[in-house]
Amino acid sequence: MTVLVLGGTAEARELAGRLHDQRVSAVSSLAGRVARPRLPLGPTRVGGFGGVDGLVEYLREEHIEAVVDATHPFAQGISANAVKACTTCDVPLLRLSRPGWADEPGASRWHWVDTHAEAAAAAARLGTRPLLTVGRQPLDAFGVLADYDAVVRVVDSLAEVPPRWTVIRDRGPYTLAAERALMESHLVDVLVTKDSGGTYTQPKLHAAEALGVPVVVVRRPPWPGAAHASVESVTAASAWLSRRITPQPPKDDGTEP
Ligand code: NAP
């Protein structure tokens, strides 16, 4: 049996590592968005499939027998495609999505919004020196902050930004001390994030709480696969898969299969 892990997250890498260790035949898939991605253990393919039809073709050609959608909670396109393609091919689909941050200390005081445009408007109202940590793709929605002294943190360089913006290229995991120092040195007075969940980028929330900096959070979009199974941890995903798969045995001579 071959498992397809739709990745681009720490959880997807961890799951791929476990499947590799358990000798489960699995391939990880990355979109190819970042220049130097962190690669999972085991076989990996990079790049879009070509929409639902392309994914259907891939599932059939590669004899994929289970799909784990472990993509980021805000990667709506690929998740929707996975639901449609797996339904078409009658391939079991599991959603692996880490819990969000709604239970974090201070979350009840955060400014929760549904879109990045609403986040931009809220940030414009709440401060003058925002720290934008929403990634590269939604930045078009933040034009209202063009004349603000914004700090923008992204993984890869940006083609064009307003002259008053400071771009910082970095990626998690981050520490509380470093996040606090970043906010203090840039006099950040409002933090903008999406509800990514997980621990890699969580310290910024604690730093904001400690410094009394207001937080604007974009709510997660709904996952369109309610009819399929979904879990919140790699361990639970691994258990779901182990009920469906048989690991490849070592060869008689003891070498790897
Ligand atoms: P998206 O909007 O859902 O996807 C757009 C298109 O990119 C998809 O239709 C698909 O192209 C391709 N794609 C996305 N993820 C893919 C994957 N894992 N393997 C193969 N093709 C993939 O996705 P996105 O928000 O741009 O995110 C891209 C990747 O970055 C995701 O894998 C996600 O896990 C990771 N990521 C996203 C965020 C975020 O905030 N969105 C944050 C951290 C990491 P085709 O239609 O051609 O198949």
Structure report:
It is a single chain. This protein is α/β, with parallel strands linked by helices. 30% of the residues lie in helices and 19% in strands. The protein has 7 helices and 12 strands. The strands form 2 sheets. A 6-stranded parallel β-sheet has the order 3-2-1-4-5-12, with helices on both faces. It has a 6-stranded parallel β-sheet with strand order 6-11-10-7-8-9, with helices on both faces. Helix 6 links the parallel strand 10 (190-194) and strand 11. Helix 2 packs across helix 3. The chain starts with a strand and ends in a 15-residue tail after the last helix. The model has no long low-confidence stretch (mean pLDDT 94). It binds NADP nicotinamide-adenine-dinucleotide phosphate (NAP).
What is the topology?
Layout: E1 2-6, H1 10-21, E2 26-30, E3 44-46, H2 51-61, E4 64-69, H3 76-89, E5 93-96, E6 111-113, H4 116-126, E7 130-133, E8 151-154, E9 166-169, H5 176-185, E10 190-194, H6 203-211, E11 215-218, E12 229-231, H7 234-242
Parallel strand pairs: 1-2, 1-4, 2-3, 4-5, 5-12, 6-11, 7-8, 7-10, 8-9, 10-11
Helix pairs in contact: 1-7, 2-3, 5-6
The site of NADP nicotinamide-adenine-dinucleotide phosphate has 24 residues, from strand 2, helix 2 and helix 3.
Give the gist of this structure.
It is built from 7 helices and 12 strands. The strands form 2 sheets. It has a 6-stranded parallel β-sheet, with helices on both faces. A 6-stranded parallel β-sheet has the order 6-11-10-7-8-9, sandwiched between helices.
